[in-house]
Amino acid sequence: WNPDHLSFQILGIKPGTIPVCHYFPTDHLVFVPAAKDEFM
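Structure for BURP domain-containing protein, as requested:
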């Protein structure tokens, strides 16, 4: 990811510093790893 991307500027973050939520269209299937205790 480009650290100068508009989304990072709007959120005031840098790539890899914090988890960011993603939104997917209806009826899409997404596989994600189980959450680690450090984020719960």
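The mean pLDDT is 81.
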